[in-house]
Specification:
The protein has 312 residues and is an alpha/beta fold. The protein is built from ten helices and 13 strands. The relative contact order is 0.14.
């Protein structure tokens, strides 16, 4: 049955892939984005699809729709430190006022709504790997708090609306995701390293490079989002979505240098404040309830991502 699905942040990296996938499934998609970190170029090829429409709008401001909406994926928020720290107050507003606006829309429409939360709710974790039951170790007054704490408040709002109004909610905690359409200037480790490597520039590692990350290819993540949205009504989450295979940042840099046959050398700089030392999802719950686990190996995903950055 065809549904009308609103994707906020739909012109962004993950959002554009999600819009594309939903359309391929025969759904009607409304993409809403203020194109602050997203780009119309990411969705340009979708404009000719009669089931796709684009609305330029910031969720901090109220949004109304005469069209009956069945599902809402709320991805609207800058997701990299470079972008979410540019205007920390607006980032907090997106995760509070913006989330309230989207929850209000879902309530009015009787729609199911999914919140794209983040592994950053775990902060610099004292538990490893991180389970959904872990409550985190977040600096509430640090430079990353606008995003970390903002997302934690967003989760709180979702569950309060669920308890108060019986709203059908889904909450996912997204771990490091990569793939084509990543923004060149977003400061993420994968895009940074690839751009530096293909230009034979120094690979910048912050700290000693022994901090760990797990890297999930975007198609795997999108499949997880859709599975979560369409899971049983009683399963609200939160649920971790990410790749549990762990690499150090230095290992990633060395792998990208090798794959790009780059002349780049690694240089080390001071580690940013509150940068997590370890980040690795426990995806037991996603495997059990959603029957989901990542399929794309890091090398295969990197190959496609490298090809993308070489083409732009």
């Amino acid at each position: 049955m065809k549904k009308t699905i609103l994707v906020t942040g739909g012109a962004g990296f993950i959002g554009s892939h999600l819009c594309e996938k939903l359309l391929s499934m025969g759904q009607k998609v409304i993409c809403l984005d203020n194109v602050f970190t997203g780009s119309k170029e990411n969705i340009q090829h979708l404009f000719s699809n009669p089931n796709f429409s684009f609305v330029e709008h910031d969720i901090i401001n109220s949004f109304f729709s005469d069209t009956k909406i069945d599902q809402i994926y709320n991805l609207a928020c800058p997701a990299s430190p470079v972008h979410y720290q540019v205007n920390a107050i607006r980032t907090i507003k997106a995760n509070t006022l913006g989330v309230i606006n989207m929850l209000g829309l879902a309530k009015k429409q009787g729609a199911r709504i999914l919140q794209a939360s983040t592994s950053e709710v775990y902060g610099d974790p004292m538990e490893h790997p991180q389970k959904e039951s872990y409550r985190g170790n977040v600096n509430t007054i640090g430079p990353r708090a606008c995003y970390d704490e903002g997302k934690r408040v967003a989760e709180t709002l979702f569950f309060d609306y669920h308890r108060k109004w019986g709203l059908e909610i889904k909450v996912v905690r997204i771990f490091n995701t990569f793939g084509p359409k990543m923004a060149e200037n977003d400061g993420r480790v994968v895009s940074n390293f690839i751009i530096q490597a293909i230009n034979n520039k120094p690979i910048t590692i912050y700290g000693r490079g022994n901090q760990t990350r797990s890297f999930c290819y975007v198609s795997d993540l999108v499949d997880g989002l859709i599975k979560m949205m369409n899971s049983t009504k009683t399963f609200t989450g939160p649920v971790n979505l990410g790749n549990p295979v762990e690499f150090t940042v230095k290992q990633l840099a060395e792998k990208i240098i090798k794959m790009t046959v780059s002349k780049s050398k690694i240089v080390y700089k001071q580690l940013p404040i509150d940068d997590p030392r370890k980040r690795n999802p426990d995806v037991t719950l996603a495997k059990k309830i959603l029957k989901w686990q990542p399929k794309v190996k890091l090398e295969d995903g990197l190959k496609k991502t490298i090809e993308y950055f070489k083409s732009i």
